[in-house]
Specification:
The chain is about 40% helix and about 25% strand. By secondary structure, it is of the alpha+beta class. The protein folds into three domains: about 100 residues, Rossmann fold (3-Layer(aba) Sandwich), CATH 3.40.50; about 70 residues, 2-Layer Sandwich (Dna Ligase, domain 1); about 240 residues, 2-Layer Sandwich (D-amino Acid Aminotransferase, Chain A, domain 1), CATH 3.30.470.20. The strands form five sheets. The chain has an eight-stranded antiparallel sheet. Strands 3-2-1-4-5 form a five-stranded parallel sheet. Strands 7-6-8 form a three-stranded antiparallel sheet. Helix 4 runs antiparallel to helix 5. The termini are far apart. The relative contact order is 0.10.
Amino acid sequence: MKQLTKILVANRGEIALRVMRSAREMGIKTVAVYSEVDRRAPHVLFADEAVCVGPAPSSESYLRGTEIVRLAKELGVDGIHPGYGFLSENAAFAAEVEAAGMTFIGPRTYAIEIMGDKLSAKDAVKDFDVPLVPGSEGEVQDVQEALAIAESIGFPVMIKASAGGGGKGMRIVHEAADFESQMKRAISEATNSFGNGAVFVEKYIQNPRHIEIQVLADEHGNVVHLFERECSIQRRHQKVIEEAPSVVLTPELREAMGTAAVNVAKACDYRGAGTVEFIFEPGGTFYFLEMNTRLQVEHPVTEQITGVDLVKAQIRVAQGEKLWFSQEDLKIQGHAMEVRVYAENAAENFMPATGTLREYKRPQGLGIRVDDGLEEGMEVSIYYDPMIAKLITFGADRTEAIARMKRAISEYRISGVQTTLDFADYVMDHDAFVSGDFDTHFVEKYFTPDLLQADDAEVESIGAMALASLLQEQKGHQKIQKNGTTSRWKANRT
């Protein structure tokens, strides 16, 4: 078993800080990399050592895998943690780290490659009793062949890019007449976005929920799941609110999905922390969607309900340790909720609204956790993802977790940039969310910008009334003093 003593975190912002904090608790020194605009960022100041890796654009800094490996070797690093995003699912980078004699704190290259392509992932798991969405066996290139598959499945269908993600290279087709044009668009977008035009066809689940299972595996063949996360509140096919556990899973469904997720991990000889994503259909049917071979943005909700520090788990597994608990040892305790606080304007179709944080005050109190990587006076940069923070609440049950989230949102003070906190507050109050009766189309079904504008108008009206009342009160005090009445302060002094 190898003992890591110094870890370089090949990332920035909140996830870099998150990794460094756990490493420090384990007595492991950390190295931060930073771009020129991140020179004074909290993750840089927190690390034991820091080194500049290039100019602001990520292609010239955080994505320079070879340069990061070179710097790590120069600084005597023995392990590299990629965080999420950037190089975290780059098989070539993982291989380069290992070839340089350092430990990649993540899965093996093979698993990253297999699960990084949706077609190879489906092929890998098909013999492991993992339910798959009905569709083509592999890539389809001929339009007529693809159309025939679509008609055999039944419309609507989804045309999906094999290398896709974040909603890119995806087209929903409701009628045969639109199929050819939509397939060409999907191929074009996939080629432009990923350099890979491979697409496949599968059944389109019309009112799905997005439920994912956290898995953890060591290099000795032990695999467990740490229950599910509900990730159905999304905008542009990207998650904005997550929670654990899901309100719709029965113990039987939880066990079935957990077993399927463990089998996916076994199918690619997985090592470390990973997430298996499923489409969940009304009625309880679920299908394998993909596997993310890294730590997820929303991992804190799993940590809250299980008590397992997933970053420490990643490091311990990377050191060659066996899992120190079994599936039977894991229990769900309470309920956790996460809101991604983006510098976006929800009233303008969630357009980025970057700028300088003139005021930044975090909420506090029992059951509230804030994972962030910015401080007051810092800029939310145009060069990177506009997420400011992850706001997490934990309660004895879902009702308490929601109540704490509403309080936390009301206490969060951010000015200088528009944020998605108002949207999150709207979701927390919505009947569909509170009841648990929602799916991935929540935003399209229930949200319109005028709802937030109405709330803003109400707040402004209340503020104007309060100001008018204060001015009136001050005017009254001035009138009393002019008439020679002793002030309250003087009266108390006599």
